[in-house]
TrEMBL record:
Taxonomic classification: Eukaryota, Metazoa, Chordata, Craniata, Vertebrata
Role according to the record: Removes 5-oxoproline from various penultimate amino acid residues except L-proline.
Active site: C149
Name this polypeptide is given: Pyroglutamyl-peptidase I
InterPro entries: Peptidase_C15 (IPR000816), Peptidase_C15-like (IPR016125), Peptidase_C15-like_sf (IPR036440), PGPEP1_Cys_AS (IPR033694)
Keyword Hydrolase: yes
């Protein structure tokens, strides 16, 4: 057993509206079947399409499990590719959820920033996965749609200091089957973990350089 296993949480959503089967949860279950390898401790869960449930669930996921990365997956009827969302938005939540509820303020966090970006550069993740030729096209978006997907993403980015990601998948068979979506999620999450690792070494590197500069240029202060 590896002591320092990376903890990753991946969530999908329950059915809503005309999505009697939510391809996001199907894809996440497929990912669970595939796994993320020995070095990664993967936990998956299905998120209700309800604003208040998201507000209750997400803090407990971040606090209790202390993950390195949380990836939320949602379905988009408009998507034809696996779409990586760069940022989550705070305002504009007018659509009613599965309980016919929407926040009175129409926002996630009363005093939060209007937009929070993931620490992960989705363009890089996208390029790498597309270059790996897994037979599933990946693209990047900056608008997660102002419904439960965007709401969940913003909340998670806020709680996790940006160590979160959101992936939109098309409905099943339009064009990808569950196995293809699962395989794409696996490739995407692996690249994300790789980037987080690189980021850490860059941060440490920067920190070390910064220390050296401080000692060298003391007479300037």
């Amino acid at each position: 057993m590896m002591a320092n296993k990376k903890k990753v949480i991946v969530t999908g959503f329950e059915p809503f509206g005309n999505h009697a089967v939510n391809s996001s949860w199907v894809a996440v279950q497929e990912l669970e079947r595939l796994g993320l390898g020995e070095a990664v401790d993967l936990f998956v869960c299905e998120v209700p399409v309800e604003y208040q449930a998201v507000q209750r669930l997400l803090p407990s996921l971040w606090k209790e499990r202390q993950p390195q990365l949380v990836v939320h997956v949602g379905v988009s009827g408009l998507a034809t590719t696996v779409t990586l969302e760069q940022c989550g938005h705070n305002k504009g939540y007018k659509r009613l959820d599965n309980c016919s509820f929407c926040p009175a303020s129409q926002c996630c966090m009363e005093r939060g920033p209007s937009c929070i970006s993931s620490v992960l550069d989705m363009e890089t993740v996208c390029k790498r996965v597309n270059a790996s030729d897994i037979g599933v096209a990946v693209s990047v978006s900056r608008d997660a749609g102002r419904y439960l997907c965007d709401y969940t993403y913003y909340t998670s980015l806020y709680l996790g200091q940006g160590r979160s990601a959101f992936v939109h998948v098309p409905p099943l068979g339009k064009p990808y089957c569950s196995q293809e979506l699962g395989r794409a999620l696996q490739a995407v999450v692996w690249e994300m973990l790789d980037l987080l690792d690189q980021g850490r070494t860059e941060e440490e590197h920067k920190h070390n350089e910064h220390c050296n500069h401080k000692h060298q240029h003391q007479h300037h202060h």
